[in-house]
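hey so u asked for the seq, here:
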Amino acid sequence: MSVYSIAEITTFIKLHLENEPVLRNLSIKGEVSNATVSAAGHVYFTLKDTAAQIRCVMFRPQRNRHLVEAGVSLIAHGSISIYEARGDLQFYVEDVVSDGSGALAAELEALRSALEAEGLFEPSRKRSLPPFPRAIGVVTSVQGAVLHDIQNVLRRRYPLTKLRIAPTTVQGQDAVTGVLESIQKLNREPDIDVIIIARGGGSLEDLAAFNDERVVRAIHGSKTPIVSGIGHETDTTLSDMAADVRAPTPSAAAEVSVPSADNLLRQIIEMTYMLGSEFGAIVSQRSQSIQSARSQLESGKPQFTRLYQQIDDLLQVSFKSIKANYMFQVEAIHSLRSRLETLNPDHVLGRGYSVVTIESTGEVIKGHKQVTQGSNITATTHDGTIHAMVTKVSPVESSGL
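ran it, structure tokens below
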């Protein structure tokens, strides 16, 4: 019996398959799963039906590579061969055409349409993230590189924030319950400002928990803003659509959740220079204003010696004016006093005049008709009073003039 090396037998199988006419020009229909894109742009995926599956590769130059999406039913055309390095049977796809959506994709699309009609994906309800989060909650698995990548990004960009991890499985039967409990737990903590939901890439089946209606509604109803970083950039789940912010990768989710300490420091330095420049300009402007005001004050400073002389002159003029007015008033008073003295009744009486009044009433008698014969009268002179009785009343004879 001959003994073959592995390389020999895999080469034999490869040649046998490639020489088989049916396998060289073959079309296969199936549902896409486990679709990934390499850095070089090649698409690796699996085509499956209810009974079996086959590995496929579609190199970058081939047409319609964009149709290869998880859950989509395709008709792929190509050839079967062996990848000798791993001994894998592979379908080398040259072209694909759509065969309509697969069952899983159709179910997912129906759910998406229903939730969108309810407004769960409405952009207007999405909240802005706080600029300086105190604490960030992370819903993810503690296994793998996702959590490590998030921790590294947060530590590098903004070490001031605290990290609260709510560990959960992110794939399999328990993933939905775990994600729901983690979201609820983080929402009960009062100081958490942002929640990141993250996991690595995978097939549509691997991401099933994040397309579950219960998880989507929990994200929509979260009181804390949620950032999704689920899968790779080409993966889009319903959880991504419901989140407040969708990041293409877990690391990117951490990036958008916190500010950059380096950028903040740069802004502080720039603002410090700007404030220093503006403050210097203000000080210079104020200094110039003060110098200008000082010059104006110096030019307008009064000459006190001249003012003193002017005050003395004004005082002399005022004194003379007051004195002249005083003398005028004295003369006026003397004149009034002389007139009053002249009109003093005692002086009049001293010249031989008297004031005659009716004794009973004290009424001054100005005419003869005020008394009759027998009336008692009083005559006041400058040195006494005379009491008398009227014996006769005679009017003054008119002179006819």
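The first helix runs from residue 6 to 18. The chain has three domains: 6-101, 107-259, 349-389.
lmk if thats what u needed
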